[in-house]
Amino acid sequence: MVAALGLSACGGSEAPPSAETESPSLSRAQANARNLAEYARCMQDRGWDAVFEDDGVTVGYHVDQEDAFRADEAECHELSGIEDFGPYTVAESDAAYDASLEVAECLQEAGFPVDDPPSRESYIATILDGGIPWSPFDAVFNEGTEEFAKAEKACPLPEM
To answer: Terminal CA-to-CA distance of the chain, rounded, Å?
Structure first.
C-alpha cells in the first residue's frame, strides 16, 4: 500500500499569520514544505520507505504493516507540526516564491545542490491548485537526512 500526504490539507505548526507578520506567505508555504520534509524524515527514521516529492510525501508499506504504519504516521504527523491552515492567496504564494529564491541562492553559495526553480507563475499555480511547490531544499533532501540538516542550518527558512 502507499500512503500520500500533500500540501492542500497541510500546514506548518506556526501560528496562523497576523497583520503584524511581515511575510505570512513564507510562514505558511515554506512551513508546509519544511514540515512535510520533517514528516518524511520522521517516517524514514522509523524504517518506512518515505519519499518527499513535488506533490507531497509518499510512504510505501505492506498491508500487514497497517497498524504499525498508522501508529508511526500519527506520531510523525504530530512531531512534524502538520495541520490545516486553509487556502493560500496569490500574494502569499508570490512572497513565498521570492523567499524560496533567496534560500536557493544561499544554498548554492554554500555548495549545496539546488534544482532549477519553476517560473513564478508555475510556482503560484501549483500552490493555488493545492500542490507541493518547488522547494530550494528538494535536491538536498534527496541526498539524505544529514545533508538536509546541514543545508537547513546553513540556510534556514525565515520564520514568523
So the answer is: 37
pLDDT for residue 115 is more than 80: yes
* Confidence (pTM): 0.55
- Asked, for residue 149, whether it belongs to a domain, the answer is yes
In a domain, 160, yes or no: no
User: Is 108 inside a domain boundary?
Assistant: yes
- Nearest 5°: phi and psi at 37? -65, -40
Mean pLDDT over the full length of the chain: 77
Decide: 132 and 6 in contact? Cβ < 8 Å.
yes
How far is residue 74 from each of residues 4, 6, 81, 134, 139, measured CA to CA in Å? 13, 15, 11, 26, 27
How many folded domains does the chain comprise?
1
Q: What is the pLDDT of residues 76-99, one digit of tens each?
A: 988 887 765 556 788 888 988 999
Which three cell numbers mark 16?
496562523
